[in-house]
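Annex B. Sample input.
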Amino acid sequence: MAMPQVHIVAYCGDLGYGVTRGAEMLSLMMAFGIVSRIGSGFIADRIGGLATLLLGSAAQGLALLLYAMFDGMASLYVISALFGLFQGGIVPSYAFVIREYFPPSEVGTRLGVVLMMTLFGMALGGWMSGAVFDYFGSYQAAFLNGLAWNLLNLVIALALMTRSLRRREALA
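Annex B, continued. Sample output.
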């Protein structure tokens, strides 16, 4: 799911737009990621961490699909902004989810483990997308690989949401 941050510069170079355009897209993605991190906090305060995670994950999947479908320079700028806006709030949502579902005495340890695994997954994902590109010779295949992993994240979040709703119903 971190594929665009790792590969957008090389992707733009391969498309003939040049690495400078790719660096601009990466900068745009990161800038919108800042907006997303702040905005996701406001959203999580209103709908909860898990719902915010679901929203961000679904939107990020849409952006990855758009990357696989469009490769025009203007569309890549727009998609990069959208990806940053959608992706930036996902990792902070994990802190909200942990805070909502675990006792305060466990939050520090659990958050540390979750963030460590998140960073490991992002590093592995960047590498894996490169390996997919090398094997298939296609960035579209690499974007679809990211989309597949994003769907797994979405399924896990949906399962947690379903479980949480069932527990609330049982307690009511």
